[in-house]
Structures are given as C-alpha cells and as structure tokens.
Amino acid sequence: MRRATTLLAVAATCAAAFLSTPAYAAAGSYTGTLSDGASWVADVPANWNHTLILYSHGFGPLAAQDAPNADTRTELLAEGYAVVGSSYSGPSMWALATAVGDQVGALHAAERIVGQPRRTIAWGTSMGGLVSALEAQDARHFVDAALTTCGLVAGALNLNDYQLYGEYALAHLLAPGQDIQLVRYASGADGTAAAQALSTVVAGAQASAAGRARIALGAALLNEPGWYNSATAPAPDDYAGQEAQQQLEIGFVLPFIMGARQQVELAAGGNSSATKGVDFGAVLRSSAQAGEVRALYRAAGLDLNGDLRKLTRDADITADPAAIATLARTSTPTGRLGVPELDIHTIADQLVPVEQENWYGKLVQRRGDEQLLRQAYVNGAGHCAFQPAETIAALHAVEHRLDSGRWGDTSPRALNAATAAAGGTGRYVRYRAQRLAGGLGEPR
To answer: Does residue 22 belong to any structural domain of this protein?
Structure first.
C-alpha cells in the first residue's frame, strides 16, 4: 500500500510539473508591455530550434525590435531561431541605465509564452552592441553567449570624449570667431543647430589646403576612417583621397553625434567630457591617422605643432563629475566576461570607429578573460553595414563555441565559407584594429 501511495504521489508531482511548464507556443508574433512601460516583441518560427536570440537595438526611438532589420529577421526565422527584444524604457534614447533590465524582462516575458529555450544568445548592434557586452558580463548569466555587431564596446565615456575633441578642433581652428556650442545642450534642437553650423564651416574649409589639413586633424581626433562612400578604400598613402572621404563623412556624422549628445547628457545628468587639461599633441600621436595629418599640414605649409599647442592652451570645457560617475556605472563595460562573446565590425565605421575593438580587446585581456572573446572584421565601409549572411555566419561561430566548449575556426577563410553557405559573399579579412585616439586612453 505504501509503495502504491508513493507511486501516486510521484505521478501527481510529475503531472503538476507538466501542467506548470508552458508548452512551446505556436509560431507567430507576440508583444507585451513590462511593468516599467517598456514594450517587447517576439517572433517564433514553426520549426523553432529552441535557441532564442535576445536582440538589443541601437540608439534611436524607444521602439521594440527583435532583429537588426527585416532581412536578417527573415533569415533567422527561416533557420529556426526565435527572436525577442525590448524597446527599453528610457527616459532618454541613451537608455543604458534600463536596457539590460528591460532585456531581461523581455526575455522572461517571452519564455512564459514560448517556453524555456535550450539556450539564449544576446545579439546587439551599435549602442545595442554595448548592451549585449554588458549582458555578457552580467553575473546573473541569463544569456549563454553574446554576438556584438558594430558595437559601441568602448563605452560612453570614451565616445563622448573623442567626439568632443574632434568637434572642438574643427570649431576652434576653422571658425575661431564663431561661438559654436559643443556641450550642455538644453534641447535636441540646440545640438542640431550647432551641428549644422559646424558642418557648414567644414564644407567651406574643403576649398583650401589649410582647411583640408585641419579637417584631417579633426577627423583624426574623431577616429574617423579615410573611407566613406567610394567603391574601394583609398590607398594607404593617398592622403588627399582619405581626407576627401573624411570631409564627406563628417558632414554625415556631425548631425547625428551632436544631436545625440543631448540625449546622452539627459541620461547622465550633465556633460561627461572635457577639453581642459587635454594634451592634443599626445592625442594625435595615438591616432592611426597621424601620418595623414602630418602630410597634409606639410603640403599646406601649416605649423601642426602650433595648432596642437593652440588647442591645448585654449581648451576650457569642463566635465560634470556626477555625469562621469553615472556613465561609468551604466554605460562602460568592465571587461569581465561571464560567457563567450564574438564581436564583428566593419573596418571603416563612421559612427562607431573600429578602433573601439582595440580598446575593448585590451580591457578584456587585462581582466584575464581574453579566451572568451573573439573579434572579426568585415572589409566594408559604413555603420553596421553587414550582409545578413555575414551575421548569420558569426552566429553559427558562437553556436559552435557553445556546442563544443571551445572556439572553432573564426579566421576570415572560415567565416567567409560560412557566409557563402548562408547565401552571401563573405568579406571577412585579416585586420588589426588600431589604438583608439583620445578618450580614456589605454584601459587600466
């Protein structure tokens, strides 16, 4: 009798567990709202392979996204992946203070509907790449691995610093008589107006050799590549060609980054970056574009050291310590990885320079987690300008690491073969990201 009672109890326990565990949901799209007001969206294919992609979107409107674009979502669903992502709750579009928590909330909301995935892979683009890097270091280990694409992995403090250095150099050297506001914007319109004024100055300066030399200096401090919209990159010694590309991309970049600064300042509670006390000669020496700048200054007959001394002497923008502390806490990676992470980046990214990968790789190495990190590079110009097949190939490399417990072949040859298998034309190349100029300097 006791044995029969025990068996009945076990059966009842199993039945209760079965009933309390959600069955895998039918294919379709699902949406919801978290307690803090963030929305989330998920898509589940009929042939779900029980891998869930937790997608983190980049800087922009706080709208829920579960893939970088429609084509990539289609490819992921066709291969059997389910995808989920949140809008973030803000209040600023620089939503790093809430993004990781909102992503965890979106993940759990989706799990209650679709069931427990076999594994979860974080995937982020641009600012969302910083979110996925933060998820990879999160002690709760709610993701099993991370794929960071065109990620802002050097964090907000670096970003704000070097962007301000370049903007200050362009404004101070090309328009010394104009009072172009560079920080502490009361509204987004203030940033947009300042960007328009500075862009107009830069466009006009292109007409003279002296102007072109100083544009190159500003571009170097901004970590802007010498390849923007030409079919191929200018030759390494084609400094005139590189500068012409930089002038065009500065016209594209300034409205975005100066408009975005107001949103970052809103999130930080002030301005986190300063020019006062910066040695601009030292910053240029750390730049991969220093040779170009020197050559164009010589061609123009200008005194480069004189301009650098002027920038250092006249710099007077100070930072707000509380804003620095906020961004250090919310928007700067520690480099201590808890799960494997693969980063991919185009070699000529105007909005998130590829040099950020150098800074981040050194940070992870100094924390002792370099065996968990791999970085790969795509021979292309543009921010997040990947083919869907290139990112699918990177995703498969992450899955191999999870399946086998070790990294497989992540060489350009292997990633290009995987891209071809996914229906694309691989552009992965051997590349070594150079040092990030300015910002926090070498990671400690």
So the answer is: no
